[in-house]
Amino acid sequence: MKRFITLCTLIMGFVVMTALRADQQPEFKFEKETNDFGKIAQGKPVTYEFKFNNTGDLPLIISTVESSCGCTVPKYTSTPIKKGEAGTITVTFNAAAPGSFNKVLTIKSNAKTPVKYLYIKGEVVPESK
Questions:
Q1: Which residues pair with 122 in a beta bridge?
Q2: List of residues 6+ apart from 14 with CB closer than 8 A
Q3: Which of 33, 80, 93, 123 is the one with CA 20 to 30 A from 47?
Q4: In whole angstroms, how far apart are CA 32 and each of 15, 38, 41?
Q5: With contact defined as beta carbons under 8 Å apart, do 101 and 46 qualify?
Q6: Using one digit for the tens of pLDDT, what is the confidence trace for 6-62?
Q7: What's the pTM value of the predicted model, to 2 decimals?
Q8: Rounded CA gap, 38 and 100, in Å?
Q9: Burial 3-34 (b: 16+ CB within 10 A, else e)
């Protein structure tokens, strides 16, 4: 019986520690998660800066930011972002081909939500001659 109680106590301790650790993880809080460029001229790259804060208790570390195509190039804060501090993910879209576009940026990090998505959209219009 003592072994059973000891085992239950150990399991409960593990569960409580795991739950406390989950609450202390870093987390993103973005000002905006989608940017609509509207109509942009063909042949003129456009850039937008997604700003965020770390609302968690531990430093936020972004491991990668991947785009859905080669026409979208992301740059991001690569140093750990401490609790309450801000970071950025800057995305440049190469408006080479006319037409509507919807692109996805996939962020991988140590946050409570380890995979996060940002979106850019708009319409590339042919350059006036």
A1: 101
A2: none
A3: 80
A4: 35, 16, 23
A5: no
A6: 766 777 766 666 555 556 799 999 999 999 999 999 999 999 999 999 999 999 999
A7: 0.79
A8: 9
A9: eeeeeeeeeeeeeeeeeeeeeebbbbeeeeee
Its CATH class, for the domain covering 22-125, is mainly beta
3-state secondary structure of 89: strand
- Domain spans in the chain, listed from the N-terminal domain onward: 22-125
Give the rounded distance of the alpha carbon of 71 from its chain centre: 19
The predicted-structure confidence for 77-123, as pLDDT tens digits, reads as follows 999 999 999 999 999 999 999 999 999 999 999 999 999 999 999 99
